[in-house]
Design brief:
Helix content is 47%, strand content 10%. A hairpin with a 3-residue loop joins strand 6 and strand 7. The longest helix is centred in the middle third of the chain and has 15 residues. The two termini are 19 Å apart.
Length: 303
Amino acid sequence: MDYQALLEQVATDIAPLIGSGTTAEYIPALASVDPRQFGMAIADLDGNVFGVGDWQTPFSTQSITKVFALALALAEGGDSLWERVGREPSGNPFNSLVQLEYENGIPRNPFINAGALVVTDRLQTLTGDASSELLRFLREESQNPDVAFDAEVAASEQAHGDRNAALAHFMAAYGNIDNPVPMLLDHYFWQCSIEMSCADLARAGRFLARHGLRADGSRLLTRSEAKQVNAVMLTCGTYDAAGEFAYRVGLPGKSGVGGGIVAVVPGACTLATWSPGLDAQGNSVAAVAALDRFTTLTGLSVF
């Protein structure tokens, strides 16, 4: 398959949508990003990467990092994680407090904020330094030692993180947080601040297309665990628009309010696309359209 030609066709087809939507205004460091940017990359199973547009421009990955934190927590600690976080779509905003009270401090899935806090808490217990361990992993899998935290974004999220603090304290009251809440929040905000390009993300996500095998050929996840992560991405990875994303795109995907989305074609390739303008659910307008167009042109999906 000529991935480069496909990417160029996708970019042409969705060009009218670039700049649509609004940036994440509730995080000041993201609000000022130029929404007229767009990039898309594909990494095949052998590590070849193809790209178009702003595919090598670093951006704030935000919630996309939740996929990699989940994979590390499963690799380090196994299935016991699922006793503390569910695997069901939430149907509510990603930072909802209401659902937690109904469900006794057990988050609905690992990709809403409450669930991601539980995963980071578990990774902190397992590794002693959750954010640094995640950064090390992403540098290795992306083959880019320059992948780094963005201190401005981390500080911005810390300064506007009251709701995340409320979620963490609420779960701690139910005994579902092991580490001190201030420490947990610090690691969580640094995790969300990691900057990567579409090329970096496409490479880093290849272990999910390779059924759990890392770039160096070692096994991070069992085939069953890789399937679990892909399944949760498909059903829960794009906030409360996961059903619409599955309907339109038909691939496991995880979005972030920085405007990026990483998607997986198991056994074939990993895609990453980015454009900062978001829809009402917090997903990039142009990035979703690009993935939709890609699967339409290629017929690649999990269905």
